[in-house]
Design goal:
By secondary structure, the protein is of the alpha+beta class. The protein has helices at residues 3-15, 61-73; strands at 19-22, 27-30, 38-41, 47-50, 55-58, 76-83, 86-96, 99-107, 117-122. α1 runs parallel beside α2 (61-73). It starts with a helix and ends in a 19-residue tail after the last strand.
Length: 141
């Protein structure tokens, strides 16, 4: 494991305890009370976080930490768009002044457009654990 991976794991664990397992695909992260498996890649001078249904890119460790704080404290959410059972797009939304603002969006160029459209909102909650904040706030930008 390289220093970049070690620093990324330490930054995430500052926010919330996580089980981190290095693999060839990246660092597999598991959080108590959350069924989704997360994989973090530290390649190409960025941090890319993957699940089976969505992924996000972060230019630096501070933005990655800020995302974890937001997603675990309820000030960020992921909205996934499906065609049939296939996830084809997602939005990362941040709560600002009482409104959900789209911070990023990703979509597939090839989607089964003939299948019914549906949406799922993911808001991760950590069972019986405290989410640590940056500089005492729920979110830092």
């Amino acid at each position: 494991m390289n220093e970049r991976n070690t620093n990324a794991i330490a930054a995430i664990q500052e926010v919330c305890p996580a089980e981190a397992t290095p693999t060839k695909a990246g660092i597999v992260l598991k959080f108590s009370g959350i069924s989704d498996k997360f994989t973090l890649s530290t390649e190409n001078d960025e941090f890319t976080l993957f699940t089976d249904e969505w992924h996000e890119h972060f230019p630096d460790i501070e933005q990655l930490k800020s995302f974890w704080i937001g997603i675990f404290s309820g000030t960020e959410k992921i909205v996934i768009k499906y065609r049939g059972k296939t996830p084809i797009a997602h939005q990362r939304q941040v709560l600002k002044e009482g409104n959900w603002i789209v911070m990023s969006r990703t979509g597939s160029f090839v989607a089964p457009f003939w299948k019914p459209k549906s949406y799922k909102t993911i808001e991760y909650k950590i069972a019986n654990q405290r989410v640590h904040s940056i500089a005492g706030s729920a979110r830092s930008e």
